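[#protein-structures] MJ: dropping Lipoprotein here for a structure pass
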Amino acid sequence: MTSRRWQACLGAFAAALLSGCCVPKKVDVALQDEAIRSLSRCDSGWVLGPGEACRFLVNAGTVSTSLPLKMEAGVSYRIEVPANQSWTDWFVPADPLQGDDGNWLINLVDGKRRLPTQPWFVLGVAERRCKGDEDCAETSARPVGTDMLITAPVDAELVFFANDVPCAYWNNCGYVWVKVQRQQAVGNSSGKAGDTATEIVHPLLPSSTNTGRRSLS
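AK: finished. structure tokens for Lipoprotein:
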């Protein structure tokens, strides 16, 4: 680890010690949005059919949470973040859509965040490519926003995270729900499902068959 990264980690650690204590809370599955609450959880190996959707949790205390699905190359998927959710940076609650502005101390290392120009604890997404089990690199990190439309090519997976300094996830608490829905039209990235959508192209995990697909009704 370089000296600059050590300085960033020490700064984040000092700010955490002065801020308080993070107390893990039970995941609240009773989402206000009935359409989200009624969905099944995404399982590893699932392949969604056209129009099908599921939900999964992103852990604030995990550096990167992988999308637990097989996604078919060339198919469009919509990622949505339900409103009225919160997770915690040490003891400070933050909305995954709006994030937190931080304080003077923690902002001494704000340039070391994974999304340096975005608020603390905004929900982010990145592409991860691995060579073997340990040699992994994440690129194209960006905030998710309310929802985004993605088209799945072949050579990487999609990971989600709370925007923080990479070495400071130990003091994070909480989870947020994320919905993923396969679009009806294969390869359609025109983004006609709402004005808040952000059109992007991400390489994701491929799948050539529908083996393991389950009904979400």
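MJ: nice. DSSP finds two helices and twelve strands in the chain.
AK: one more thing. The helical segments are 3-19, 34-37.
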